[in-house]
Design brief:
The structure holds two protein chains of two kinds.
Chain A lengths: L1 H31 L44 E7 L2 E3 L4 E9 L8 E4 L2 E4 L8 H4 E11 L3 E3 L4 E5 L5 E8 L4 E15 L5 E16 L6 H18 L1 H18 L1
Parallel strand pairs in A: 2-11
Antiparallel strand pairs in A: 1-3, 3-9, 4-5, 6-8, 6-10, 7-9, 10-11
Chain B lengths: L1 H24 L5 E7 L21
The chains are: A alpha+beta, B alpha+beta.
Chain lengths: 254, 58
């Protein structure tokens, strides 16, 4: 029994020593390894400039090649989204997205620092319409709501012309529906047919579907129509009194 | 008395029905969002867009 106790103590010490050694080895390997993060510079120190390494070639500002401006659409555009934030359950409505030309835009780059205004030179940007077919594409993603058309809508974009996308929506039941309206521009090279696409806008839309006393829009209209007829028939004496009142008044005047 | 009750009932039904009709036929209010898009956002995607800025060497 005494031997066993001594053996247990020695074994425990050996296990603890091994664990300490493993931990120390692991810590050292983390510090020395390539994955170890370098200690951040002190907050008071100025940020050290990056020194060029042997593998990276140093390029002076004069070595830059002449930059050719990327072809672009030389017109500012305005994206207008119209949607009903609240809609009656069972009714359909329209969501409209219009990409139109912004007539009042200032294309000249302008920077302002305090009281000084610096206006940049006008850069001759190649017209994208001359080299590419430009197609505006849009899609309305919203879960749980009926959207027509559900797929991507494509409209060829011409200079100075606007593109309008319309969706018909109908909520099947009450609740808050959240969706995204995406607008893409697709460029197709006129020479080689290469296609490229950019995302211009992704707007989040929140539409609330409501009802009244548990009645959907069409049911409320039908109930209102029938109720008006019934109310008129039941309250006919009331109308009779009104008519009599007007006749009496007319007779008094005569 | 029954005449008065009948008139009252008729008026209540009429008011509720007209309320339902107004709610059912009221035009939807539209929210409009306008977002200006400068020409710089209507460019072809450049290779720089695929390279992180901190990897560019000047």
């Amino acid at each position: 029994m005494r031997f066993n106790n001594r053996t247990l103590i020695v074994s425990g010490l050996a296990v603890i020593t091994c664990l300490c050694a493993l931990f120390a080895f692991y810590s050292l390997s983390l510090l020395r390894g390539t994955g170890g993060a370098a200690p951040p510079p002190a907050a008071t120190e100025p940020p050290a400039e990056a020194e060029p390494t042997g593998t990276l070639p140093s390029i002076s500002p004069t070595d830059f090649p002449a930059i050719t401006p990327q072809p672009a659409i030389n017109e500012s555009r305005r994206l207008t989204l119209e949607f009903p934030p609240r809609i009656r359950t069972g009714d359909s409505d329209i969501v409209r997205l219009t990409l139109e030309v912004d007539e009042l835009s200032n294309v000249t780059p302008t920077a302002q620092f305090g009281d000084h205004v610096v206006t940049g030179e006008t850069v001759q940007i190649p017209n994208l319409y001359e080299s590419h077919h430009v197609i505006a594409e849009s899609r309305f993603d919203i879960a749980g709501m009926e959207v027509r058309p559900p797929d991507l809508i494509s409209i060829p974009l011409a200079p100075g012309q606007s593109a309008t996308f319309s969706w018909s929506i109908r909520p099947p039941e009450t609740g808050v529906y959240r969706g995204t309206i995406w607008l893409y521009l697709q460029f197709v090279d006129k020479l080689n047919g290469d296609e490229s696409r950019i995302t211009v806008s992704a707007q989040i839309v929140e539409i609330e579907a409501v009802n009244i006393l548990g009645l959907s829009g069409s049911f409320a209209r039908t109930a209102g129509l029938i109720g008006s007829v019934i109310g008129t028939v039941i309250g006919f004496p009331f109308f009779e009194d009104i008519v009599k009142y007007f006749f009496r008044r007319r007779n008094r005047n005569q | 008395m029954s005449r008065r009750i009948r008139i009252l009932l008729g008026i209540i039904i009429l008011i509720v029905s007209i309320g339902l009709l107004i709610w059912g036929y009221a035009p939807s209010l539209y929210e409009t969002r306008v977002q200006p898009i400068p020409p710089s956002e209507l460019q072809l995607p450049t290779p720089e867009a695929f390279l992180p800025v901190n990897r560019l060497v000047f």
